[in-house]
Write the structure tokens for this entry.
Amino acid sequence: MFDLEKFDIKLDTEFIGRQFIYAEEIDSTNSFLLDKGNKLNSNGTVVLAEKQSKGRGRKDRVWYSAKDQNLTFSLLLTNKKYFGKVFSLINFAASLSVGLSIENLFQLKADFKWPNDILINGKKVAGILLESTSQGNKVEKLVIGIGINVNQVLFQGNFNIGPTSLKLELNHQTVEREKLLAEVLNSFEETLLLMEKKPDEIIKDWKAHCSMIGGRIAITEGDLIKTGIFDDLDENGFLLLKIKNKIEKIHFGDVSLR
Ligand code: BTN
């Protein structure tokens, strides 16, 4: 059982998580925040669910997570200042806050896989799903859904990348979820501030955690596979793929090593 008091003591933010919704079971924390009927509009609102009956991953994949063992939560941003120039960086800011929290609390090395997977020792420990609603061409709400495998040790199913959890990477030491969630939210608020003041730092810090840069990769988008060298990220976070000395900008896709 998630101890709300323990979490609250460690939360050190101005606005992220100050409206906090805890649910035993919900379809998806992202869907919950996106649902207009729930009338949630406060910038920084966080929803945490112990179990999701329809947890979603990128590209309509299912996000499996055992009840009470992990962290599946979503954050709501409604302040218009995030929907301008920095919009494409929020994804990377979210990965950074999860990665840095894992490194600070557990001294594990977090490796990022474009666009928003967090790996430890080549296995996926966390994933991020950004979704938004718009009115006309104006973004109204941005929802950042984060799934972190914390204390789950058995994983069943077919996975794009092999899964792991913090507990597995820490020789079966159980992790305090309250402390980790507070650390991620504290770190996310700081990273958002950095993003506003020095947006270039976000991509720079993200790249410093991406071991695939410089390596030969394959990008899969539907039936299309492109191979080349992962040259760099541009200032908006698009992947620059070098194919026969030409640079191609990649907007979507799944990256794997070749
Ligand atoms: C991915 O790696 O494909 C993204 C996974 C995102 C999963 C999280 S769990 C909390 C939030 N609610 C969802 O339905 N999905 C995200």
Q: What stands out?
A: The mean pLDDT is 97. Residues 27 and 111 are 29 Å apart (CA to CA).
